[in-house]
Amino acid sequence: MRRPPPIALAAALFAATTAAGAGGETIDPWSALERLRARLAADGHLEADFRQSYVPAGFELGDTESGSVALAMPDCLRWDYREPYRKSFLVCGSRAWSWVEDEPRGQRFTIDAEREMGLDLLLLPASELEKRYRATATRAAGGEVELVLEPLDDEAELAVANLGLDASGGRPLSLDWKDREGNVTSFRFDRWRPLETESAFEPPAHLDWADPATADPVR
């Protein structure tokens, strides 16, 4: 089961090629990122539809999946895949869960948000992120903003990532990244709207949870 980006939308990496569109207005990327996070936090719990594609290095076409994503700033993100297979991923702080519909057991992980690329973009202040990434931002003629991020660490799994924002800078439109092997993952987001229930950020109570390192059930 491929794990999704624990990016949290608010910036995870999120194209997959080089710099922002030429000829647009250049803006400060860290200010744009801070405005995005502030806007998402002010708007409360949100959800959107997404379409994801994964194209392996050397191929022109790849797998496509779709579903919905829910976001609760500052540190909760949930992905619910509907097509072609129903599965879910939840990240809240240092805990992450994954499960497949109609299976009795899910997996539970402990993660270090400061070390997970993507989660750091959600949680750390711009002053810390500037020590980890090169970033550029461009505003296109239509008002949309494109942020391009490249890790300063040449050993990082991520090679380059693009995050596309709407004209207000408060809603992600797209998220694309390329890893060091040349694999490209792309997301397109649509219909951002208020999320009506907070239970989306609680793992299902009826499942047994196993640590994938031990395969033993945990509760």
According to CATH, what is the topology? outer membrane lipoprotein receptor (LolB), chain A
β-strand percent reads 35-45%
From the helix content, strand content and strand pairing, which structural class follows?
Answer: mainly beta
What's the quaternary structure here? single chain
CATH architecture: Clam
- Spans of at least 5 consecutive residues with low confidence: 1-23, 215-219
Shape category: globular
CATH superfamily: Lipoprotein localisation LolA/LolB/LppX
Q: How many beta strands in the DSSP annotation?
A: 14
Number of domains: 1
Main sheet makeup: 14 strands, mixed
Fraction of residues in helix: 10-25%
Brief account:
With 219 residues, the chain is mostly beta strands.
Walk me through what this model shows:
This protein is mainly β. 11% of the residues lie in helices and 43% in strands. The chain has three helices and 14 strands. Strands 1-8-9-10-11-12-2-3-4-5-6-7-13-14 form a 14-stranded mixed sheet, covered by helices on one side. The longest helix has 14 residues, at 29-42. Residues 1-23 and 215-219 have low confidence and may be disordered.
Brief descriptors of the model:
globular; 43% strand; outer membrane lipoprotein receptor (LolB), chain A; 219 residues; 3 helices; mainly beta; 14 strands
List the topology elements.
Elements: E1 25-27, H1 29-42, E2 46-55, E3 63-72, E4 76-83, E5 87-92, E6 95-100, E7 105-110, H2 119-123, H3 126-129, E8 133-139, E9 145-151, E10 158-165, E11 172-179, E12 184-194, E13 208-210, E14 217-218
Parallel strand pairs: 7-13
Antiparallel strand pairs: 1-8, 2-3, 2-12, 3-4, 4-5, 5-6, 6-7, 8-9, 9-10, 10-11, 11-12, 13-14
